[in-house]
Amino acid sequence: MTVNTHSNLLSDDLAFQKEILQDVSRTFALTIPQLPPELQIAVGNGYLLCRITDTIEDEEALSAIQKREFCDRWLYVLKGKCDAKSFSEDLSNLLTLSATERENDLILNTYRVIRITNSFSDAQQKALHRCVSIMADGMAEFQQAASLEGLSDVDHFNRYCYHVAGVVGEMLTELFCHYSPQIGERRKDLFSLAASFGQGLQTTNILKDIWEDQRRGACWLPQSVFDESGFKLQMLSPDTMDPRFVEGLNSLIAIGHHHLKNALRYTLMIPSHETGIRRFCLWALIMAVLTLQRIYETPTFKSGQEVKISRRAVKGVIISTTALSRSNTGLKLLFSNLSRRLPKI
Q1: Nearest-angstrom CA–CA distance, 228 and 213
Q2: Which of 21, 69, 149, 340 lies 20 to 30 Å (CA to CA) from residue 280?
Q3: How far is CA 242 from CA 60, 222, 303, 305, in A?
Q4: DSSP characters for 149-210?
Q5: In whole angstroms, what is the distance from residue 294 CA to residue 253 CA?
Q6: pLDDT digits 0-9 by tens, 41-92
Q7: What is the pTM of this model?
Q8: What single string gives the DSSP state of each residue in 22-84?
Q9: In 3D, which of 326, 334, 304 has the Cα closest to residue 214?
């Protein structure tokens, strides 16, 4: 393959990546363009790699054993030990309506996503490979044990959140440090909070998606939290809201709130002149705070759509955080004001 041909292919691949990001993630399609151009490509690619993993996990037609097999094959594809096209065709043939048309399109174009990954520096590829490996292994493990009885305890819950989101926070930290030597000087402190950042976002998503997960035969809530109020998760039903469940729900909101406080601490460690990276972090964490607030105020919600924040609220997040992106004091006050009614640990 000539240099020009390779360059043209990569250019086409990057155009595909940019286009499909708009269709497979409302949040990341909004936040990734805030990053410096070099980071946009690496972070966008990392997101798509994770989304392919998510598609395997979410596919209702696949058994737990099949999910494990496809996760293993996916890791071989990532390492260059398995053909991407045969993997994507085999997976695509088994996808049902639980995967959107654009998710199916992403799967069929796995080889293009991988070509972009292979164009990165060794350090960037290492960060992406580590993230997807941990995520895929963890998802396959948890899918095999998925049930409506929930996870056993908070440690089990935290481990699940780490595998599906905390590790993404670590991947982003590695990419940020690779991009900026100044950020790299703070790597140790950032890394100590990175997983918590991801866990805060994942805890919010789990609470928002309780009923959607239940319809798929899974519950990712920790039973031990509900033991304190005497509620069994296998009794959970959107048609009968038990006050004992609400008590446990509020305890999990408090856990999510705690993680999002750590997310703010993480964000404020990013140098103030890196406003794009700060906005990328801030928009995600503030939208999570507002979602937790919606869940807390409406514990009888029956679908994630009922607690999804409005476009107007998203616009407010963008305006306020953009105006305050350089001010640590202003951002602390904003976070405190928006989260003041949330339960605390």
Answers
A1: 23
A2: 340
A3: 28, 17, 16, 21
A4: T-BSSHHHHHHHHIIIIIHHHHHHHHHHHHH-HHHHTTHHHHHHHHHHHHHHHHHHHHHHTH
A5: 11
A6: 999 999 999 999 999 988 888 888 999 999 999 999 999 999 999 999 999 9
A7: 0.93
A8: HHH-HHHHHHGGGS-HHHHHHHHHHHHHHHHHHHHHH-TTS-HHHHHHHHHHHHHHHTTSS-H
A9: 304
123: tokens are 């350090």
Token pair recorded at residue 15: 């155009």
The continuous run of DSSP H or E covering 337 comes out as helix 328-339
The tokens describing 175, both together, are: 């990419």
Per DSSP, 233 falls in state G
pLDDT of residue 3: 45
Q: Is residue 312 scored above 80 in pLDDT?
A: yes
pLDDT of residue 227: 95
Average pLDDT value over all residues in the chain: 93
Question: Greater confidence, 3 or 266?
Answer: 266
Distance between CA atoms of residues 326 and 279, nearest Å:
10
- 337: which 2 tokens? 């004001």
More confident residue, 129 or 23: 129
The number of residues in the chain equals 345
DSSP per-residue string spanning 311-332: HHHHHHHHHHHHHHTT-HHHHH
Cα(70)–Cα(90) distance, integer angstroms: 9
Strand partners, 151: 222
- pLDDT at position 60: 84
Enclosing H/E stretch for 5:
helix 3-24
- What amino acid occupies position 246? V
Residue at 41: amino acid letter: I
Q: Which residues have C-beta within 8 Å of that of residue 233, sequence separation ≥ 6? A: 148, 149, 150, 219, 221, 223, 226
Kindly state the percentage of the chain with pLDDT values over 70. Answer: 97
